[in-house]
Amino acid sequence: MSASSERHFKYLVFIGRFQPFHLGHKAVVDEALQRADNVIMLIGSANLPRSLRNPFSVVERSQMIKGAYSDDEAARIHCVGLDDALYNDTRWLQYVQAAVKSVTGDLTSDIGLIGHSKDSSSYYLSLFPNWAAISVPNYKNLSATPIREGYLMGATPTPERTPDSTRKVLDTFKKTEEYNQLQEEAWFVDKYKKQWEDTPYPPTFMTADAVVVQSGHILLVERRSMPGRGLWALPGGFVNQKETLLDACIRELREETRLKVPEPVLRGSRHSQHTFDDPYRSARGRTITQAFYFQLKSDASGLPKVKGGDDAAQAFWLPLAELDPKQIFEDHYAIICKMVGL
After folding, report:
1. Where are the beta strands (DSSP E) in 77-185?
2. Are 146 and 186 spatial neighbours (Cβ–Cβ below 8 Å)?
3. Which of 81, 135, 140, 253 has a CA 20 to 30 Å removed from the CA of 31?
């Protein structure tokens, strides 16, 4: 991406997760403040539960960003939360456009994109042909991932990698129970991954998940164990060596929900299936899941009885209108949206 070095913009847009905001990000914002009247920070992975990949809220990340600048500079920086739309680029583009418009008032203003293409996650820069783009060199090859992972394991980020404002937010968060829970999960995942460190190649896991819907309700479970303990999830789990994906899905569904529907009826209610393979969808490692969508017929006697079992603390039917991405594990909200058409 390129743009005239002399060009000045009314708005420059910087899209990222900033988990956490580090000096590499700050170098991009510094350049944007020189090149534009206003800088729009679209803070990705908004409205998700805290996790090892997304431990900090939009408010906390906004404090990291704005706190790194003087009051006058901070007044020109507009922080806007940006929801994820995994497996749906069109919806994500709509979210970006709406977020930018919330600041600019329209999408015909003098708008540009700024950032650096550090990896495949920056592919979005090619999705906005109407906006000029400015490339900023990667500052000292900094990445948020090792900073975040070290912090969640108990380390303190250094001034060589993070601004004071970020360390202040991190120090405050470290004193919370939420940090303690994430740190426990970080050590759990680290131990989990050590089981596979001597394999010749990093393993890829296969799971199957059930999307069961009846009368505008979806069947969910509450996770009993880490990672994601206490979050809502689709019934599902790992595929055994000698079973098909569908058999694994139905087995896990039975084990976790005790769903009172005869298996022939369940198999006959299968509507569709889809593979979900975002590389970062699971903290435990590369995990691909096959989701099966079951549409159960409405029944005057009500929804089938369910009861939590195995890895599920409880199983329950939830009205689709009450789905809350802040409560849902990993990418299961995106899976539901894709399968059900929300």
Report:
1. 77-83, 111-115, 132-135
2. no
3. 81
Of the ranges 24-28, 47-51, 130-134, which one carries the lowest mean pLDDT score? 130-134
Question: What residues pair up with 340 in beta bridges, in sequence order?
Answer: none
Q: Would you state the structure tokens that stand for residue 100, as one six-digit string?
A: 């930018």
Contacts of 339 (CB under 8 A, 6+ apart): 211, 272, 274, 291, 293
Q: Name the pairing type of β-strands 270-276 and 287-296.
A: antiparallel
Question: Which of 281, 233, 230, 225 has the alpha carbon at shortest distance from 52?
Answer: 281
Two structure tokens written together for 57: 């809220």
198: Cβ–Cβ under 8 A, 6 or more apart, which residues?
none
DSSP 68: T
Q: What is the CB neighbour count within 10 angstroms for residue 198?
A: 6
Query: Is the distance from CB of 234 to CB of 316 less than 8 angstroms?
Result: no
- What is the average per-residue pLDDT within 37-59? 97
In contact, 1 and 12? CB cutoff 8 Å: no
Q: What's the whole-model pTM score? A: 0.90
Percentage above 70 pLDDT, the chain: 96
Residue 68 near residue 26, CB atoms below 8 Å: yes
E strand intervals along the chain: 9-16, 36-46, 77-83, 111-115, 132-135, 205-214, 217-223, 232-233, 236-238, 270-276, 287-296, 312-319
How far is it, in rounded angstroms, from Cα 328 to Cα 216? 18
CB 93 within 8 A of CB 127: yes
pLDDT of residue 197: 82
Q: Which residues contact 300 (CB under 8 A, 6 or more apart)?
A: none
User: Do the Cβ atoms of 281 and 336 come closer than 8 Å?
Assistant: no
Look up residue 113 and give its two tokens. 């994109």
